[in-house]
Design brief:
With about 140 residues, this protein is an alpha+beta fold. It has helices at about 5-15, 20-25, 60-65, 75-90, 120-130, and strands at about 30-35, 45, 55, 70-75, 105-110. The protein has a 5-stranded antiparallel sheet, sandwiched between helices.
Amino acid sequence: PLLTTKSLISIKYSLMSNPLEVNEEVPAPMNIATISAGFEKGDFLVREEQGNRVYFDFFEEAFNYISNKGYARMSREDEKHWVDLMNVIHDSVKGGMKYNTGTLLMVLSRPVTSDGVPAEKKEAAKVKTPAKVDSKTLNP
């Protein structure tokens, strides 16, 4: 059956009264990094992509390290969501986590480009790639 004028008006009214349902965006791919506290090797631990862990004695060092890699602090709402999610995940491990997870202080994120490579790494690859040189122009 075709849509009637009455049903179209009803749909239009529904969309106008709930604009968030129409404009909801799919979250963009991202990498996350965390800063946690409470470890023997260093007071602060940065966990980032591919399982890299770096320990620091001062929070400022940890924050500057991860910020210089292109990570930025999430909004409070997003950060709270991630903290809650990670707590649930850690609590779900039967017998507890194998390693000390510390106290999660901050969650940061960095967007990933469509090909899965972080934008920062793409730019670095462009800079490090030498320009092609014509072999005829080189002196022997």
